[in-house]
Design a protein that fits this description.
Structural class: mainly beta
Distance between the termini: 40 Å
Number of strands: 11
Shape: globular
Helix content: under 10%
């Protein structure tokens, strides 16, 4: 039910910052829990940051904690991933995801809806 569209990816140098955006449409009940995932070359998708759209952030991966921040602008139906101090190992495809679960949002790993992904490349 949810349609997600990411933007904001690009190429940056190590230590620089990027902000990713995800505009969501569809019933709000389909996206009570939203998150950002990343697919590194040759690997599966890893959960980076998750938030409840009602109570706020619930999860950060150890690899990004302190560097990445998930947030939302509810009036614009948009969530963001602010990425600072980027490293070459952050290079990959970043996906926005949504799930209807209302409780234990930080425990959700299998999300129902996914965006198309946006490429982030960090060079040294």
């Amino acid at each position: 039910q949810a349609l997600l569209t990411e933007s904001g990816g690009g190429s940056v140098q190590e230590g620089e910052s990027l902000r990713l955006s995800c505009v969501a449409s569809g019933p709000t009940s389909s996206r009570n829990c939203m998150g950002w995932f990343r697919r590194l070359p040759g690997q599966g998708r890893d959960r980076l940051a998750v938030m409840s759209t009602t109570t706020g952030p619930t999860y950060y991966a150890d690899s990004v904690k302190g560097r990445f921040t998930i947030s939302q602008d509810s009036a614009k139906n948009t969530i963001y991933l602010q990425m600072t101090n980027l490293k070459p190992e952050d290079t990959g495809i970043y996906y926005c995801a949504a799930d209807p679960t209302r409780e234990r949002c930080g425990r959700v790993t299998a999300f129902d809806y996914w965006g198309q992904g946006t490429q982030v490349t960090v060079s040294s």
